[in-house]
Design goal:
By secondary structure, the chain is an all-alpha fold. It has one domain. It is built from 10 helices and no strands. About 2% of the residues have low confidence. InterPro entries: TM_pro_TauE-like, TSUP. This is Probable membrane transporter protein. It is a multi-pass membrane protein. Keywords: Cell membrane, Membrane, Transmembrane, Transmembrane helix, Transport.
Length: 252
């Protein structure tokens, strides 16, 4: 039953990530529910959802250079790589009991970010001058560094954070932002997963099966995305996130 639970969680997490995001709202609580320590549950769930970032990048590869980037792409990749590594090292070094107490709050924050993201993104878009040129600012680099470190430590909500950062940085094309979001998320998560493996933070009892289930869920989600209104999807994911957050507070 434990194995079935985590497989189903990974499958539906793949669906969520394909249609709107929020897959970690399912994988982390499911692994905790079957007795995996929170630090290992976080790392294992991140590994299971990793391939989806690159499949998304490949699907939108033509949009990556649809507009000029505010800073060189190589520099953004470097920042994402270093930030993801630092975040993963923090996860290795943190006291497991401290992370246990943080996990429900991190899940709550990720859920709230997902919930209020449309409002935040609209506000950013309205406050921007559409004709303003892209600027390679220190603020954008610091922001990307902070988000990358967060993503290496706790992956939940990373996509929404990157989209908000890109909007602030002056991007106008949503397709370019989504393509870049998938690329940088995949890179920083890959570095983080390598460090998780080296630090023995992966529960291999579930990891490979969850990875396959998430891939299948991602394929199914790509089909469902065209059938279900986006507002309904977002509302459902927020409810799932709140329910799983409540479970984590009770469980931990």
């Amino acid at each position: 039953m434990d194995f079935l639970l985590v497989i189903l969680a990974a499958f539906f997490a793949g669906i969520l990530n394909a249609v709107a995001g929020g897959g970690s709202f399912l994988t982390l609580p499911a692994l905790v529910a079957v007795g995996v320590p929170p630090v290992l549950a976080n790392a294992t769930g991140t590994l299971a959802l990793l391939p989806g970032y690159f499949s998304g990048t490949w699907a939108m590869r033509g949009d990556l250079h649809a507009e000029r980037h505010p800073m060189p792409l190589k520099r953004m990749v470097l920042i994402a790589t270093l930030g993801g590594g630092v975040g993963a090292l923090l996860l290795i070094w943190i006291d497991p009991d401290v992370f246990r107490s943080m996990a429900p709050w991190l899940l709550l924050v990720a859920t709230l970010i997902f919930w209020f993201a449309p409002i935040v993104l609209r506000s950013i878009a309205q406050s921007q001058d559409a004709a303003a040129p892209h600027e390679n600012t220190l603020k954008a680099q610091v922001g990307l560094t902070a988000v990358s470190i967060y993503g290496g430590f706790f992956n939940g909500g990373i996509g929404i954070m990157l989209l908000a950062l890109f909007s602030i940085s002056g991007y106008q094309s949503l397709n370019t932002m989504n393509s870049l979001k998938n690329l940088l998320s995949g890179i920083l998560t890959t570095i983080a997963v390598v460090i998780y493996v080296a630090g023995a933070l992966i529960d291999w009892q579930y990891a490979f099966a969850m990875l396959v289930a998430a891939l299948l869920g991602g394929y199914a989600g790509g089909r469902l995305a065209r059938l279900i209104p986006r507002s309904v999807l977002r509302a459902g994911i927020v409810l799932i996130g709140l329910a799983m957050t409540a479970f984590m507070f009770v469980r931990l």
